Amino acid sequence: MKFFSQTLTVLFSLAVLIALSVGGYFALEYLVGIFAKIDFQVAVVTAVASVVALMAAWIIASSLSEASRQIKGQSAHAEKTTTYQQLIAAWKEELQHEGGQGLKSSDLRSDNLEALECLLVLHGSPGVVDAYGALRALATSLSPQRSELVSQFTAVLLEMRKDLGLSVQNLKAADLLQLLFNHETAAPEFGATQQPQDLHPRVSLAAVRRKDLHVP
Fold first, then answer.
1. Do 203 and 155 meet the contact criterion of CB atoms below 8 Å apart?
2. How many secondary structure helices (H) and strands (E) does the chain include?
3. What is d(CA 212, CA 143) in angstroms, rounded to the nearest whole number?
4. What single-letter DSSP state applies at residue 5?
5. Rounded to an integer, what distance in angstroms lies between the CA atom of residue 74 and that of residue 160?
C-alpha cells in the first residue's frame, strides 16, 4: 500500500511538471507572437514597462511582508514583557511571604503563578526558562536557603533583561533587588554579610537535584 501511494505521488508530480512545462511553452510562444506583430521600439518599451511593473509589485509585496513581520515581532515582544513583569511581581510576593520566612510548596501552586509559568513556556527565551527552572527547583527542594533563592531570582532577572535586549553590563544584583524591595518591610536578605551577589549567579538543575538527593 505504501509503495502504491509513493508511486501515485511521483506520477502526479510528473504530470503537474509536464503540464507546467507545456503551459509555459505555449505562453512564451503567445508572447513572442504578440511582440512579432508590433513595432520593435514599441515592443522594447512594452517589455521594459512589464519588467518595471513586475519589480514594483515584488518590492511592494516584500515591504508588506516585512511590515507584517515587524508588527508580529512587536506584538510578541509586548506579550513577553508583560509575562516577565507579572512573573517578577508574583515571585516578589512569594519571596516576601510571611515576613521573609521560608517558602512553602503550597505557595508555589497558586493558579496565578501556574498561569504565568504557562505563558513563560510560550514566550520565555531558553536562558530565562533554564534560570527559572533552577529557581523553581531550589524553591521546592527539601531545605531551600533564602540567600540561594534570592541569588537565583537575580539570575532570572538578568536573563529576562538580556532577552528583552537590555544591557546587564556593570549591573549589580544589589541594585536590582533594592529597586524591587526598596519600599517593602519584608525585603529578602542577601545573606549574613549583606554583600552584593555575583552579577551572573547560576544554579543548574542538576546541582539542585544532587543537593536534594544529598549526593556529593
1. yes
2. 8, 0
3. 8
4. H
5. 17
Q: What angle do CA 57, 63, 66 make, to 5 degrees?
A: 140
* Domains of the chain, residue spans: 2-71, 76-212
Strand, coil or helix: 206: helix
Q: Which three cell numbers stand for residue 145?
A: 536557603
DSSP letter, residue 105: G
Q: Which three cell numbers stand for residue 203?
A: 544554579
Cα(138)–Cα(179) distance, integer angstroms: 23
Q: What is the pLDDT of residues 7-41, one digit of tens each?
A: 878 888 888 888 888 888 887 777 777 767 667 77
CA distance 122 to 38: 60
Amino acid making up residue 43: A
Interval 162-216: pLDDT, tens: 999 888 888 887 888 888 777 554 445 544 334 444 444 455 554 544 545 444 5
The reply to whether the predicted model has a pTM over 0.70 is: no
